[in-house]
Amino acid sequence: MSTTYLIGIDIGSSFTKTTIMDIQGVILGDAKRDTHPQQPRPGVAEYDGPALLAAVYESMRELVDKSGVDPTRIAAICLDGMISGCMGIDENGDAVTPYTTTLDQRFTPQLNWTLDNFHDPIRQLTGSGQPTVAPKMLWIREEFPGVFKRSAKFVTISAYLLGKMAGLRADQAFIDYTYLWATGLSDTQRYAWSDELCRVLNIPMDKLPRIVKSTDIVGGLSSEAAVATGLRQGTPVVAGAGDQSSGYVGAGITKADRMASNAGTYPVLALCTDQFRPDMTNRMAEIIPSVIPGLWNPTSYIIGGGLSHHWFQETFAYADEVAAEAEGKSVYDILDARASVLPPGADKLFFIPHLGGRACPANTDLKGAWFGFTWTHKREHFYRAVLESIAYDQYQQYQSLQATYPESNVVEVTAYGGGAKSVLWNQIRADVLGLPQVLLGREDLAALGNAILAGYALGIFDDMAATAERWVTRAARVEPRPGMHERYRPLAEFYGRLLMQTAPAFADLTSVPG
Fold this sequence. Notes:
It is built from 16 helices and 21 strands.
């Protein structure tokens, strides 16, 4: 009996992962490529579009070869990608700029100008105060006018890659609507470009691609791509979604009142709701359209917050690495074990995790800081403070979501991402938020989301939410410990005040020479 297969590709900020699975959600194999950005100096982080395309082609070819799957049985390809950026393409669909996200901070003056002058109308229409595409376009026009002129369209990295796979020209370029919130140019509730925002920001609408659904088939695999990958020419190519949105599908965050915590590079706290209600008061929730029309995922995140975890290990934990090697454990196991015996609050040591600026609400001046340390604090105190800072930030985010969506009734949080492997971190987040953390039985949630989108596009699945629930089981549940939420609350509230009190000092820091 022949079997149908689906390919999902996850374009992350550090790695690209390609997965093949059958229509029961069983993975037949995956292939991974390192796709870290080029960072020649502080504030610069560029992804080379053709190099990413080559990495995707290589991984697809490797996957087909080693899985033994008949390429003619692969029904569709779907891809998710990094959200907060854009790149220019010419009339042929070829890259004329690198792809840059918020990790590349050279567009900060244009971002600040946009927010200083147009924050409210942008948030009211797009649902978000994190416009990236519009300021990136303004930056390219001001700094590289010739490149801007040659750019027929500005697209996301996923649209560029899928466009090349399908041989699409610029007039066929697209953006799926899960990216609209980050553009600063959309009437998101209508899934349309906003004439008003394009006019006030002086962005030519003819530079913008057509808007499609995440489940739209945008083309078929070109002959060139078929040769490069070993797949069948004409294999349907599905629009896909932003990386967080694909993960929400895989994690089952597709029904009202469900909440997700993705402990990845950009730690995320997200709600699912049927209400489009911009957060005009606290400015912390960015409304990401769900792949399911009529549903929304108000989301808050920390720029590179997960990198702080890795940064601490690389910078301060050499002795722990030696101990881990001797004991046959990971360095994080050692760090977690030592930090787990400390009291909540790490003896009143606080960490600000916004090393790349704050996103929710936007404050590009904010950086990282330690506060309250004394001679008695040891490495494990600093490590625990890093973990707790993410939880404290999500406490602020959760309070804002409750204020904006008072009718919501969240009873638990679905936790996933690399940080969800940490028993200590899961317990801290459960205690700080006062909500159980539900851990899932598999980690490949974005790949699952892509497969579900592809299968839905072809009519293989008729209900995306139900399919996700069949494929993903609950592995564990971490309950808040008695009395710990009440113990953590004043610490989390102090952290919120600390952010406000240090903001003026960070603003002054920008004018300090050196």
